[in-house]
Amino acid sequence: MLRSSIIRASRSSASAIPSTATRQAIRMPRASSVVCIQQQSRQAHAISNPTLANIEKRWEAMPPQEQAELWMSLRDRMKVDWNEMTLQEKKAAYWIAFGPHGPRALPPPGETKKVALYTVIGILVSAVVFGLTRLGASAKHPRTMTKEWQEASEEYLKEQGTEPITGYKGMLVQSKPGPKGQFDDEE
Amino acid sequence: MSFIRAASRARPSCLLRAPARRVTPVLSSRPAFSTTARRCSEDPHAEETFEEFSARYEKEFDNVNDVFELQRNLNNAFAYDLVPAPSVIVAALKAARRVNDYPSAVRVFEGIKAKVENKGQYDEYLQELEPLRQELGIVLKEAMYPDA
């Protein structure tokens, strides 16, 4: 779902004008130019209303052959004076070329909600998994995870002249002070 | 293949001009796609003025021969940080009429609507283009699909 919306976004941002419908229709009937000429003479009159009625709903379900034929006849109608075209023909021509279908299709309703919901679910699941791993962790910290050790590390770095730019006091300290006599056994 | 030819044509050097290349007089008369403004002035970084832009695109639209060229030029003309002048729009609409592409003509008005800053400017454009719109019989998208 997310992937498809990204693809859709990238496609729709690519160009505002070229219409896929025209491209398809131009590509398809190359082989049958004779048919095209016949249609041209036949389509001198307006396309009947039932053919174009509710085309916005039917277009995507139409077989490609019919789509191509309808677009071809509309293209032939566009060759006459546009004032002679019926409103329905104009609407159909515009909708097929630039209507919200194919790469211009609008996102399905509720997509934003779905994305937000699944994101929240993912965060919650990961939080639970993190909590479980922490539950299973040992209570004994490594010996370097004490304030004293980290301060000693700072001292050591300072002696060596390492990293003088951000070498402020308390730079490495991130743990609580350890218990008394924690380093006794090492000496 | 054609882009190699175009590249070799664009270069003024005589080194690449092999005799075999001269057999394309149709191509050499006018480039099939003039993508950018050719600038012969001394300053290669000069900004194109609005008038130059308008003149360039009027010429581009006058030379349009098919739907693809029309839509390509529309994409380019509307990609700038400006609203094309009415003269450019007129040229575009006439080009749409010439290549019999009604949807693109409607789309031009949609493009203006998207580019202008406010509704007042759009109305001014509509007023300016009203005679041509009536003459060509272009119905606006707002009129065809009022609720969309």
UniProtKB/TrEMBL annotation, chain A:
Pfam families: COX4. It comes from the Eukaryota. The chain crosses the membrane at residues 115-137. It is found in: Mitochondrion inner membrane. The keyword Cell division does not apply. Signal peptide: none annotated. It is a single-pass membrane protein. CDD domains: Cyt_c_Oxidase_IV (cd00922). Residues 1-17 have a biased composition (Low complexity). Belongs to the cytochrome c oxidase IV family. This is Cytochrome c oxidase polypeptide V. The lineage of its organism: Eukaryota, Fungi, Dikarya, Ascomycota, Pezizomycotina.
From TrEMBL, chain B:
PANTHER family: CYTOCHROME C OXIDASE POLYPEPTIDE, CYTOCHROME C OXIDASE SUBUNIT 5A, MITOCHONDRIAL. It is a peripheral membrane protein. Pfam families: COX5A (PF02284). SUPFAM superfamilies: Cytochrome c oxidase subunit E (SSF48479). Component of the cytochrome c oxidase (complex IV, CIV), a multisubunit enzyme composed of a catalytic core of 3 subunits and several supernumerary subunits. Signal peptide: none annotated. It comes from the Eukaryota. The lineage of its organism: Eukaryota, Fungi, Dikarya, Ascomycota, Pezizomycotina. It is found in: Mitochondrion inner membrane. Its main location: mitochondrion. Component of the cytochrome c oxidase, the last enzyme in the mitochondrial electron transport chain which drives oxidative phosphorylation. The respiratory chain contains 3 multisubunit complexes succinate dehydrogenase (complex II, CII), ubiquinol-cytochrome c oxidoreductase (cytochrome b-c1 complex, complex III, CIII) and cytochrome c oxidase (complex IV, CIV), that cooperate to transfer electrons derived from NADH and succinate to molecular oxygen, creating an electrochemical gradient over the inner membrane that drives transmembrane transport and the ATP synthase. It comes from Glonium stellatum. One of its GO terms (molecular function) is metal ion binding. One of its GO terms (biological process) is mitochondrial electron transport, cytochrome c to oxygen. Pathway: Energy metabolism; oxidative phosphorylation. Belongs to the cytochrome c oxidase subunit 5A family. This is Cytochrome c oxidase subunit 6, mitochondrial. Keywords: Heme, Iron, Membrane, Metal-binding, Mitochondrion, Mitochondrion inner membrane, Transit peptide. Gene3D superfamilies: Cytochrome c oxidase, subunit Va/VI. InterPro entries: Cyt_c_oxidase_su5A/6, Cyt_c_oxidase_su5A/6_sf. One of its GO terms (cellular component) is mitochondrial inner membrane.
